[in-house]
Write a sequence for this structure.
């Protein structure tokens, strides 16, 4: 929910809002999310060897800013798991801080054992992309699944873990053939389809807090060309865009192509121009339904 609300917020806007209402905890939570997003934007997405000192310095600045904000939030409400998740996201960028990643995760799930946002952040932090491994990332997802309650959004963690592996093979190893083979791996397909079918079968209506999570199976089923499940996943997003699972290239274009494929069954050709994505719904639109 925080990710949807903060999707288009800029640092200047949220800083001004917090200055105007310095005691507003909800604004501080949004600010922590915006600042933690700036860590990744400052560092960039390339390997460490291809990242400049200036980029690392920019990331370090936002780590410090995020943790200062998180400190205020924890002091205000030690039982809220969200600040710990923002700390986790901050620590994962620098390998020397990885011990703190685990401590932040433990604090988050101690406060809320079934908090999907905490599990997803740890799935990402333990991935091979961030100096962990595919096995460690999958273990976090599967462990969360084993403790989940029927009908919650924990299956999104499993989709995220497999998407991270697909992204690593395709983007970091530059192995397009291997990435396609992973999408068709029978064991992977069976695990995800079983989790998805149970998840979708237990979900009776769109929930605001779940929208961002349904984009993970939607992205997987677009990449793997399972149109029926793609359509089912998109139905739970209520036409609300969330960027992360689509960011293996031009995120909005990939998302628009997925919408086109879901609707028509047609894939854009190399020369095709993808349709513009639908207008992004803001947080207030949810409360007008």
């Amino acid at each position: 929910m925080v990710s949807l609300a903060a999707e288009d917020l800029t640092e200047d806007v949220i800083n001004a809002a917090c200055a105007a209402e310095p005691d507003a905890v909800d604004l501080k939570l949004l600010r922590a999310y915006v600042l933690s997003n700036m860590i990744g934007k400052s560092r960039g997405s390339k390997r460490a060897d291809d990242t400049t000192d200036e980029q690392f310095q920019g990331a370090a600045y936002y780590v410090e800013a995020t943790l200062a904000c998180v400190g205020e939030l924890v002091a205000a409400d030690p039982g809220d798991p969200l600040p710990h998740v923002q700390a986790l996201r901050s620590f994962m960028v620098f390998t020397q801080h990885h011990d703190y990643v685990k401590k932040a995760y433990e604090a988050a799930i101690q406060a809320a054992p079934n908090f999907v946002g905490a599990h997803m952040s740890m799935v990402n932090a333990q991935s091979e992309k961030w100096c962990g491994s595919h096995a460690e990332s999958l273990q976090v997802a599967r462990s969360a699944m084993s403790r989940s309650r029927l009908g919650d959004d924990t299956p999104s963690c499993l989709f995220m873990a497999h998407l991270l592996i697909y992204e690593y093979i395709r983007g970091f190893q530059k192995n397009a053939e291997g990435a396609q083979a992973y999408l068709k791996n029978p064991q992977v397909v069976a695990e995800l389809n079983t989790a998805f079918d149970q998840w979708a079968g237990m979900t009776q209506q769109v929930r605001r807090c779940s929208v961002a999570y349904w984009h993970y199976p939607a992205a997987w089923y677009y990449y793997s060309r399972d149109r029926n499940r793609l359509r089912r996943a998109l139905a739970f997003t209520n036409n609300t865009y969330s960027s992360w699972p689509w960011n293996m290239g031009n995120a909005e274009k990939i998302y628009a192509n997925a919408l086109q494929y879901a609707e028509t069954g047609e894939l854009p050709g190399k020369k095709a121009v993808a349709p513009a994505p639908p207008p992004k719904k803001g947080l207030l639109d949810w409360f007008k339904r």
Q: What stands out?
A: Confidence is low (pLDDT under 50) at residues 270-276, 279-289. Residues 1-112 form one domain. The chain has 15 helices and no strands. The CA atoms of residues 3 and 39 lie 15 Å apart.
